[in-house]
Amino acid sequence: MLNSTGAGSVGGYGDRSLWQGRLAGLRKLDWPLTVTVLVLSVVGALLVRSATFQLALEHGDDPEGFLKRHILNLLIGFVLGGVVTVLDYRLLRAYVPILYALACVGLLAVLTPLGSTINGSHSWIVIGGGFQIQPSEFAKVGLVVLLAMILGEPRDGEIGPGRRDVLLALALAGVPGVLIMLQPDLGTTLVFIAVVLGMLAVSGAQKRWLVGLVAGGAAAGAAVFFFGLLKKYQIDRFTAFLDPSADPRGAGYNAQQARIAIGSGGPFGKGLFNGQQTGGHFVPEQQTDFIFTVAGEELGFVGAAVIVLLLGVVLWRGLRIASQAADLFGTLVATGVVCWLAFQTFENVGMTLGIMPITGLPLPFVSYGGSATFANMIAFGLLQAVHIRRRPFD
Amino acid sequence: MNPRTHFRLVVLYVLVGLLLLVLMGRLWSMQILDGSHYQQLADQNRTRDIVVPAVRGMILDDRGIPLVRNRSALVVSVDRTTLSRQKDGGKAVLDRLAGVLGTTYQDVANRIRLCGPGIKRPCWPGSPYQPIPVEDHVDPKRALQIMERQEDFPGVTAQVQAVRDYPRPEGATAAQVLGYLQPITQEELDKRKGLKVTGYSGVDLIGRAGLEAQYDAALRGEPGFRRVLVDSQGRVTGTAEEKAAVPGGNLVTSIDAGVQGAAEKALKHAIENGRKAGHPSDAGAAVVMDVQTGRMVAMASYPTYDPSIWTGGISQDEYDALLGKKKGEPLISRVTQGQFAPGSTFKISSVAAAVGDGYPLNGTYQCPGSFDVGSRAFHNFEGEALGSMNLHTALVKSCDTVFYKFAYEEWLRDGGMHPKKNPSDPMVKMARDYGFGKATGIDLPSESSGRIPDRGWKKDYWDATKKGDCKAAKTGFPDVQKTDPARAAYLKAVAAENCVDGYVWRAGDAANFSVGQGDVLVTPLQLVRAYAAVANGGKLLTPRLGLAVMRPDGGIERRIADPQPAKLPVDPKVLAYIRSGLAGVTKSGTAAGAFNGFDFKKVDVAGKTGTAEVYGKDDNSWFASFGPVKHPRYAVVVMVAQGGQGAVTAAPAVREIWEAMYGTKKQKPLLKDGKLPSDLPSAPVQGTAP
After folding, report:
1. Is the model's pLDDT at A153 over the cut of 90?
2. Does residue B216 form part of some domain?
3. Which of A89, B201, B487, B606 could lock B582 by a disulfide, CB 3.0 to 4.6 Å apart?
4. DSSP for B661-677?
5. To the nearest whole percent, how much of chain B has pLDDT over 90?
6. pTM (whole model) above 0.80
7. CA quadruple B91, B92, B96, B99: dihedral positive or negative?
8. Does the distance separating the beta carbons of B4 and A301 come in below 8 Å?
9. Interchain pair B231, A279: CB under 8 A
10. How far is B129 from chain A (nearest CA, A)?
């Protein structure tokens, strides 16, 4: 740093006008990440169309209706992501309390009569006019920046956050966590746990915290199961993946149909828009949680593997960004986003392949769904924001 | 970046990489390794085989008039499998369906429950995997409601199907001859391979009785199938493969609708007359046979029922009525399955046996009021003494004592109570030669054989009953003793006798046999065939109903052959003598009253009355006839169980049938010159009902 001119020089545009600087910063975007997300979005849009046009046609609706709405969601999402990218993420710290409060209010509102139940989860607020918000998606963003702020406080000498910080982080993460469990939204709860664990680990917290958390989580899970705190359908859904043929018309139906769709795709698939399982809409929720089955059937192993690889690229770039971040706060933001997307990808694809229980989580950047798309794009923006302001000589 | 953070980021790298590797591995295993397995599952998911039922052939009379045809009906069916996928097990759907059909939920639910032990009708006896028809008289508006709102009626279909229709030409029902259809059971399906289930239609029916069962293979045709593509809701999205159904052939029978109608009517009158005279008259039969060919022209049975009751689900009340003894078991054909003591109509056999045994055909015989068979006196009918007579008169006047004497003397010659090694038993042998005691082989299922109680039968019967008799011989009959000591003593004596030597063919057995009483049982069909054999000069024919199977588009697929007749071992001169005796019966004999004023010029009818005494019941009333005497064409038999005297109840009904066939001054004849059509009809007279 020969030409160090203070704090501004970290981003490399301290002596230029604000907007010029920001536009110049765009050139520093992580282009592999950007291109990958764009490709995933396009593939996702095509899969969404394939999953929906036949049914819409039969119902006399606009067969391209889902595609059009999905494209609109993507456009809004990119704008959101762009705004987040150009914001100086370090200024986020100032807004974290507000973001956090908003997330909690949203999650609370879901539990009031304002909320609606879709597929057994009380996770939505219907605004009207066909629009609905799923606050838990935005809560993931809130959680990431909140934990990054608490655990990423600049410290002197200490390698990791102290006990006070860890407890504070756990307490603040616990509030939205409990609200989500109350919906109940098992998938998002698991994402929260993955994010908390991942960020705690990378923040440098003592090993005993991590071990204690994993042990405590396992104990709590066992307690919930054995004391009958879960409803039967939740247990059924959770365990159906182990043996979908046990009840092929009930809880195992999704699991079984998902496997048939993917398995029948073979090496090269049936061709885009040619899936017969898809066209016959045998797999429920196919444009959202089970979008991967469309890829499996229509694009085959080749196409499905490419999608998994593309998601892998996103995660790899995210981890790279975490490693190169200018500060611990940036590292933790990127780590949180990676943990979130990694777990959600594994869980979503895993449940369609029958190696994970079925929970209501969309596939990042691919599935249909406004709130999820917006949240994913904001996450994408966060990664870019950290990347733009990375350490210059790494 | 501190080293711990750095290290843990590296761990995260590795972890994420591992997770992705797991996904890739699983993807490889499912799509590359197990791809064909899942492809198979997917194919099952996507296609469904629909068996297209073949239209069942009609059953026609000898002129091509349908006795059974098909009518199209809008049938509403329910698929249990789809229903069970509903959250509430389909209750809401059935509720809605009941609303549309104007019935109750319980009624619909009953119709689709599976039959089993303790389950009352209505219930479904067929496969649980077929759509079950719940209503087949749906009016099109209601059916349309169901088809238009498929989302409200998952698993419910409404479609046009052919169902059995009974037009009853000339009033001819012939219910027991035609038989009925029932949903095929799993056992039948397993037994008859190649029988496809018409899954989609919901009704794969099989003939369960009568001609429907006998000629099921010819009538049923060959179902086609359609392999359709379906979506997850079971909605058909296209057709992958198709094979058309081959409709079943039409069965042309020898039943003549006109004569059948007349026979049913005459039988009904006979029953009514019998009841008016104070006899229970609980069952009856009327049969007309072509004596030259063995073709059955009419077969009426009483009690009867409306065969259209089988179309659509049958209720428990209706089903009970059909099977129950209370309603007289109308499913049972009294013609082929009913077994009755034949009384004096049996004498055509006995007289031939006596002559064959050496009694002169033109001899003179005494007809006293009673004849001592061993120690017991056997009486003539009403104890009448008719003096000396020839065999002709013995038939005309139906003298019993003449036959008792023949039987007793033959019995004595065979060794009496200590029979010789190979007794000749001429009357028993002759009865068998006349075809009694054995099924005739008519083309109908479940025919009864009747009973010729010979020495062997007595032995078997004794083996089966001696235990009870020996016990009763010791204990007596205390119940009867209380009310009727004399009768109790008699029963005890009989039991004691039976216990010791109940297997012995006694003189009384022989005497009873000669006049068709005691343990002799015949079916009306056996009797009409025996009279046909007398009429046609000694050909014992195999009765036939089926003439030919016609292709649905006309033209003969195959003719049904007449089996070779057996030969009656009776001298033609004797048969001619019997014929002349029977000719006298209607003019100056026991049936002269019933045939008073009958136009014998139109058709010279000969016959024989029969009044069979049945222990503990009213007499069976018989009249067996043939005509015209010179060139016999038909044999007609009417029987009314517990109907009183043959001359009074049965004979007038036989007369009514002859008059219907040949006409009277007031009545147009059903048969032109007394002849049935000689050629097969070229095509059905009427097609499917609208």
Report:
1. no
2. yes
3. B606
4. HH--SSS--SSBTTB--
5. 48
6. no
7. positive
8. no
9. yes
10. 16
